Automatic annotation (TrEMBL):
<keyword id="KW-0106">Calcium</keyword>
<keyword id="KW-0111">Calcium/phospholipid-binding</keyword>
<keyword id="KW-0677">Repeat</keyword>
<dbReference type="InterPro" id="IPR037104">
    <property type="entry name" value="Annexin_sf"/>
</dbReference>
<protein>
    <recommendedName>
        <fullName>Annexin</fullName>
    </recommendedName>
</protein>
<dbReference type="InterPro" id="IPR009116">
    <property type="entry name" value="ANX9"/>
</dbReference>
<keyword id="KW-0041">Annexin</keyword>
<dbReference type="Pfam" id="PF00191">
    <property type="entry name" value="Annexin"/>
</dbReference>
<dbReference type="InterPro" id="IPR018502">
    <property type="entry name" value="Annexin_repeat"/>
</dbReference>
<dbReference type="InterPro" id="IPR018252">
    <property type="entry name" value="Annexin_repeat_CS"/>
</dbReference>
<dbReference type="InterPro" id="IPR001464">
    <property type="entry name" value="Annexin"/>
</dbReference>
<comment type="similarity">
    <text>Belongs to the annexin family.</text>
</comment>
Length: 317
């Protein structure tokens, strides 16, 4: 049995803000970060502001952050190109030379493209000595297929680029960088993770999750529920990986609801009883993304906002 769902949803940003109580509030322009395009945007004025901020005896970090944190990522990319054209200098390198510490890291993140930022964060997560599932799963499970493909391509290029850097003079030739990421992604995931966490990350990196067609197949929902009930025994991890990484989110929401009706408890309770360590954390994170992606991000943002605000001088330490 299949039915069509005709629901019209608000944007992801609106849903995230609604969970934080910000969606319906009015605020002075700029207090909501880069969620909105800066309407009075002038690339020439912004370039001049940044030049003045780094050209004086002391670096005006407030002016730098005032520009970069009140522009969308697309507007910041326009500023980077205009800065290069007008000064023959790279804005990122100029700011790196003027800044240090946490503030330098923030500025680097703000000036990267979305794909560059995700690629760097994914690499850091996989190469870190701590568990990789949190950031890696967030990136691999929540990005669109097209964005993920671009991110993974940048991931491969940046890694290969560092190995060839000594052989370059001037700008590196584009042909020196391979365009196929998947082999490198699989190598890093296989070398840095293991067991079901490795299987989940490899499956998510392939980006083969079903697209929601607007039709719910309730026969398949019931099949998946029964498969998960039977997969509570050992050596059935593959069933969890397949369902969690290949079914579309609308389908999985129905699977979660039906599973609770059939068993009397949420699927997350089974995950907690069935799995431990990285596997448990990974599946619970995926369950949060599946059930309510905006709430998942709202929780992440709320946790980040608990960190004490630091003045500019402390950010540079």
């Amino acid at each position: 049995m299949s039915v069509t769902s005709g629901k019209t949803r608000p944007s992801l940003t609106q849903e995230i803000l609604s969970h934080l109580g910000l969606a319906n509030k009015t605020a002075a322009w700029g207090t909501l970060g880069t969620l909105r395009t800066f309407l009075s945007f002038s690339v020439d004025k912004d370039v001049q502001r940044l030049l003045r901020a780094i050209a004086g005896q002391g670096v005006d970090c407030s002016a730098i952050m005032g520009v970069l944190t009140n522009r969308t990522r697309e507007q910041r990319q326009l500023i980077c190109r205009a800065f290069q054209e007008r000064t023959q200098q790279d804005l990122l390198k100029s700011l790196q030379a003027a800044l240090s510490g946490n503030l330098e890291r923030i500025v680097i993140a703000l000036l990267q493209s979305a794909a560059q930022f995700d690629a760097q964060e994914l690499r850091t997560a996989l190469k870190n000595s701590g568990p990789a599932e949190d950031v890696a799963l967030e990136i691999l499970a929540t990005r669109s297929a097209s964005h993920l493909q671009e991110c993974l391509m940048v991931y491969k290029q940046s890694k290969s680029g560092r190995r060839r850097e000594r052989g370059w003079q001037g700008s590196p030739p584009s042909l020196a960088l391979p365009t196929d990421f998947q082999v490198e992604a699989e190598e890093d995931i296989k070398s840095e993770t293991s067991d079901i966490l490795q299987e989940l990350l490899l499956a998510l990196a392939k980006g083969v999750r079903d697209r929601y067609s607007g039709i719910i197949d309730y026969n398949l929902v019931e099949q998946d529920v029964q498969a998960l009930k039977q997969a509570e025994a050992p050596s059935t991890e593959g069933t969890w990986v397949l369902i969690f990484t290949q079914r579309n989110l609308e389908h999985l929401i129905r699977v979660f609801d039906q599973y609770q009706r059939c068993t009397g408890h949420e699927l997350e309770k089974t995950v907690q009883n069935r799995f431990h360590g990285d596997a448990q954390a990974a599946l619970l994170s995926l369950a949060s993304v599946i059930k309510n992606t905006p709430l998942y991000f709202a929780d992440k943002l709320h946790q980040a906002l608990q960190v004490d605000k630091l003045p500019c001088q402390e950010l540079e330490e």
